[in-house]
Amino acid sequence: MTPWKNPALLLAGTALSISAAAQQKADTARTLDEIVISANRWEQNLNEVPNQVTRIEARDVLQNNPQTTADLLGQSGSVFIQKSQLGGGSPMIRGFATNRVLLVLDGVRLNNAIYRSGNLQNVLSVDPLSLREAEVIFGPGSLIYGSDAIGGVMDFHTLPARLSTDGKTLVSASGLARYSSANSEKTYHADVNVGGRKWSFLASATFSQFGDLRMGRSGGPDSYLRPEYIVRLRGTDSIVKNSDPLVQRFSGYEQANLLYKLRFRATEHLDLQYSFNYARTGNAPRYDRLIQYRNGRLRFAEWNYGPMLLQQHQLLLTHNRKNALYDEARYSVALQDYEESRIDRSYRSNNRNVQAETVKAIVSNVDLNKGIGRGQLFYGAEFVHNKVGSTGLQTHIGTGAQTPIGSRYPDGSTWTSSGLYASYKINVQPKLTLTGGLRYSFNTLNATFDTTFLKFPFRRAELRTGALTGNAGLVYRPAQGWQLNALVSTGYRMPNIDDIGKVFESTPGMLSVPNPGLRPEYAWNFEAGVVKSHADKYRFEVNAFYTLLDDAIVRRPFSLNGKDSLPFGGAMSRVEALQNVAKATVWGVQASAEWSFTRALSLRTHANWIQGKETDDAKNEQVPLRHAAPFYGSSFLRYRVGKLFTEVGAYYNSKIKAKDLPPSEQAKTDIYAKDADGKPYVPAWHTWNLRASYQFTKHIGLTAAWENIGDKRYRPYSSGIVAAGSNVVVSLRASL
């Protein structure tokens, strides 16, 4: 189905066409100058940056009421979100995802040595209600951020600890309570800032509880329903009928986020800050595993991600007194303590398996900038060290007896990265800005394998490798209201502990084993964009890109000790491993438009068309790329007058035919709809949504929404859980 056969998609196309045909008018350059972003760790004007950047502000969080940061990114219209379970959300950016896109929180990378190629839920570690703003920087960001920034960078900035500017103690606070009907969400948030002339303190806390998610009633195949589930009755697992198949038993979970900042302005030019980020989920049932069948019955009685815990301590020193080396400098040291686990038990089994992982990390950054002539030099250094702990334990749920089992990763393994970078931006003339830079990174990996449970033909894995990356871009502003961008950039990803050392069941009957012979993968990216805008009237942007990934690390058939199958989990499983055997190409067009019909009425729309291919080693041919999402986007008509804000619009996705579904997705028969030939495919879908907010007083506001008004039943591409059906969201916010 083409996008234009869907009325919601037609609305997007109409809006883009209107914006493209808009007449040229004056004053746009001033508007673009006022948009400030932090695409290279330092603030700069958007109209001097060749990258495509999507900016999300705190007011977007308050208006849209996302349950998690994954939902916040999805609401932007530029990022596709996959969910294996309700307690999840894996961003896909320009055909890349998981450990090929980078998460950054307050300037510190969150990606660590066990970020996997499978879907990730680590973006939940960022609390949307504690954000001042977020930026999605599309395309390779390895020049500034090093390994993993191939598809893009998600850069999150939390609430600042504000100082007093008038000599009086500054006290501000806000609180929020929210309820969502589709999963009985209850969220409570509070933040407070106390600031003097030199000292300030900020505290933020958010607690959320999510029940089982209800899917939509209309449309969508009956195979999405949850007709039965497993409960333990009188000491025995029993399969019982679900009284309401629309309710996805079991999918609920809990989450808590805390943020503390203590800031000291020692002098006019020296600022010190300590911050602490804490994020923890409860057990998050992995829904796509709980609906798997084996031999005609549900396979797992339990499959949970155990509590995911992130604790990050950061010391930040900022010095802004000009000298021979820099105009401004930032020194950051962060300590991270990360934990995750997997808990599973098969139907009618008394043995519960637990694999637990920890990562102790230190991340140190030095970032400086210096004005040189008409240009600006940005340069710095980074050091990252990760140490991985990994254990496996099997517990008999009747007797409590415990037995060691194989761990997911080699225990005690380490991963390090060191890098130096420099980038230069110069305004050659008022209409032309040039940028360029280089980075050299050196990475090491050390792992020792335990052969107790699987007889590996190797004992150690070591990597010592470097990578040179760079970019060159230009921004040309031929006339007021016009901006033309072009960029060539490179990125790389160093194999991590998950790539080289993991043992796990990727899909039923497929066992992934270590491969110590992996090499880094390297990307080349070419993109061009055009922006046409008019102050307070419209803004239209189109970006086209092409990315080539060499030595792509992908999972392929493998053999261990000469065997292509091994016993695992009570059954024979085919052996596979990650290997540098593929070449991946991704290309596409991303477009957005904003049109103000009057001061009160406006239209905003986003459209994303992305295609990708990768080498299938078994067939030696190009096949669809796993993380290239179908055509997707959103369109919303907004009305704002006085204290009232309302919007109505749609989110939409196009169809993926069976022949266009990646081979790895075709194997996931439990989550996909079946076409007329019985083959898995992704149906097209769209939802209509209504949202309104009203500010009763300066300090009290109410937001309400009716999402998925038609109660549509749909499952986004590659997702394990079916999306929420008709959902009423109400939140009350108070501030002082």
TrEMBL record:
Subcellular location: Cell outer membrane
InterPro entries per the UniProt record, alphabetical: Beta-barrel_TonB, Beta-barrel_TonB_sf, Plug_dom, Plug_dom_sf, TonB-dep_rcpt-like
SUPFAM superfamilies noted in UniProt: Porins (SSF56935)
Keyword Amino-acid biosynthesis set for record: no
Signal peptide: 1-22
Residues annotated as domain TonB-dependent receptor plug: 46-153
UniProt domain TonB-dependent receptor-like beta-barrel: residue ranges: 274-709
CDD domains according to UniProt: ligand_gated_channel (cd01347)
Gene3D superfamilies: TonB-dependent receptor, beta-barrel domain, TonB-dependent receptor, plug domain
Keywords, alphabetical: Cell outer membrane, Membrane, Receptor, Signal, TonB box, Transmembrane, Transmembrane beta strand, Transport
Membrane topology, as annotated: Multi-pass membrane protein
Assigned protein family: Belongs to the TonB-dependent receptor family.
Name of this chain's protein: TonB-dependent receptor
